[in-house]
Structure to design on (229 residues):
C-alpha cells in the first residue's frame, strides 16, 4: 500500500512538473538502461523543489523507485510543513538523518539492500544565491557518497547535474514560481568501470580522495548554464 501511495505521488509530481515547467534535458548519447540503475547522484543542490526533475524519469522506473528507493533526508527538512509532508509520502524509502555522522547515518547505510535504488545529494546542504552554503562556505562534496559507492559492485550510476532552481524557489523563499525553464544534464556510468577509473585500491584513502576530487570537479564544471532568471 505504501509503495502505491509513493507511486501515485511520483506520477502526480511528474504531471505537475510537465504542466508548470519547461524542462531541458541533456541526455547521454546512449539510451539509458533504467532497469540497471542502482544510484542517482544529484549535483548542484539549490532548492527543496528539485523534486521537479522527477519528470525526466520514465513511469516504469518510477514504479520501481516507489518500491526500492532509499534516500536520506535531513531531519530539519522533514519537519517543514509542506515539503516535509511531501517527502514523508515516500516513506519508508526516505530515511531521516542528521548532519552529524551518528547512528542515523549508519541506519541509512543498513537500509541499503542489493536491489535498492539510491537517490543521493552529496553536498548535504543547499547553495544560497551567493553561491555559498548557509554558513558562507564553499559548496563541497561530503565523503558519505564514497562510502556508498564502495559497497556497490554492479549496475549503473546516474550523475544528474542541476542547472539550479533559485529562479524557481531559493532557500528561505515560499511557494515556487511557475512557468520557468529548468535544466538538467545526465551522464551514466557502469559502477564497476567508474570505480576503476581512480588509482588506489577501492576503499583506500587514495581512492576515496580521488573519487571526491572527481565529484567536486563535476559539481564545479558540469551543471548547465541557466538563462531563465
Amino acid at each position: 500500500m505504501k509503495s502505491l501511495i509513493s507511486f501515485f505521488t511520483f506520477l502526480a509530481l511528474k504531471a505537475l512538473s510537465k504542466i508548470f515547467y519547461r524542462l531541458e534535458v541533456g541526455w547521454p548519447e546512449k539510451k539509458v538502461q533504467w532497469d540497471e540503475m542502482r544510484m542517482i547522484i544529484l549535483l548542484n543542490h539549490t532548492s527543496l523543489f528539485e523534486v521537479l526533475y522527477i519528470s525526466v524519469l520514465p513511469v516504469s522506473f518510477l514504479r520501481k523507485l516507489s518500491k526500492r528507493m532509499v534516500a536520506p533526508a535531513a531531519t530539519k527538512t522533514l519537519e517543514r510543513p509542506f515539503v516535509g509532508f511531501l517527502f514523508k509520502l515516500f516513506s519508508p524509502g526516505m530515511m531521516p538523518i542528521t548532519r552529524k555522522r551518528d547512528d542515523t547515518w549508519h541506519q541509512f547505510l543498513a537500509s541499503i539492500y542489493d536491489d535498492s535504488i539510491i537517490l543521493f545529494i552529496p553536498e548535504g546542504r543547499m547553495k544560497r544565491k551567493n553561491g555559498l552554503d548557509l554558513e558562507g562556505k564553499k559548496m563541497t562534496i561530503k565523503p558519505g557518497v564514497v562510502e556508498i559507492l564502495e559497497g556497490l559492485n554492479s549496475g549503473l550510476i546516474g550523475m544528474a547535474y542541476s542547472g539550479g532552481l533559485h529562479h524557481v524557489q531559493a532557500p528561505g523563499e515560499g511557494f515556487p514560481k511557475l512557468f520557468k525553464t529548468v535544466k538538467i544534464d545526465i551522464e551514466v556510468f557502469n559502477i564497476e568501470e567508474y570505480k576503476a577509473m581512480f588509482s588506489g585500491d577501492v576503499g583506500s584513502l587514495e581512492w576515496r580522495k580521488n573519487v571526491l576530487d572527481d565529484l567536486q570537479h563535476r559539481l564545479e564544471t558540469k551543471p548547465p548554464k541557466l538563462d531563465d532568471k
Remarks:
- The helical segments are 2-20, 59-68, 75-78, 81-88, 103-110, 144-150, 191-195, 205-221.
- The chain has one domain: 2-221.
- The mean pLDDT is 91.
